[in-house]
Amino acid sequence: MTLAEDKAAARRAGLARREAAHAAAVPGAAVRLSDVLAGYRGVPLAGYMPIRTEIDPLAAMAEAAAHGPVGVPVIAGRDQPLRFSRWEPDAPLRDGPFGARVPLVDDFLDPEILIVPLVAFDAVGGRLGYGGGFYDRTLERLRRRRPTLAIGFAYDAQQADALPLEPTDQPLDMIVTESRVIGR
């Protein structure tokens, strides 16, 4: 198999595991993420608006927003890094690409911490997303400017033994699941 075929197979497997975990999930999955973010109060961060069966970080993002700026990703265009618009709980939103909601009015910020959604992860910080490369381009751009902490947020079931990765795939510094923290 080619690398592209290996990645496609790993994505299918990861999405199936995530779907099953999402169906069985109980409320409160973001508690551990809130605990991690408490150590970074006031540091500009970006989360995401969950789509499909992604684990929901909104409770942790709302808590963080009480202490500092929080953004959500806005897709600028194909093959472009993401931009992050300031988000507040209960602020008006509009529909964005791929079904994710974005702030009605853009107020862009550069985060120092990214809460990253994913399809699958491995124990050494490898991440497999949907295949568009948005987070890889974004992390590469941000990390060229300054240290940027990438926190993958996922269900335990999304862990894979190994992932087919390329040199352009940006590693995660930490993975937070509903039951544990991996890294740092």
Automatic annotation (TrEMBL):
This enzyme's EC code(s): 6.3.3.2
Catalytic activity: (6S)-5-formyl-5,6,7,8-tetrahydrofolate + ATP = (6R)-5,10-methenyltetrahydrofolate + ADP + phosphate
Class of enzymatic activity (EC top level): ligase
A molecular function GO annotation: metal ion binding
The protein's required cofactors: Mg(2+)
Record keyword ATP-binding present: yes
Protein's GO biological process: folic acid-containing compound biosynthetic process; tetrahydrofolate interconversion
Gene3D superfamilies: NagB/RpiA/CoA transferase-like
UniProt entry tagged with the keyword Transit peptide: no
UniProt keyword list: ATP-binding, Ligase, Magnesium, Metal-binding, Nucleotide-binding
PANTHER family documented for this protein: 5-FORMYLTETRAHYDROFOLATE CYCLO-LIGASE, ATPASE INHIBITOR/5-FORMYLTETRAHYDROFOLATE CYCLO-LIGASE
Family of this protein: Belongs to the 5-formyltetrahydrofolate cyclo-ligase family.
Protein name (record): 5-formyltetrahydrofolate cyclo-ligase
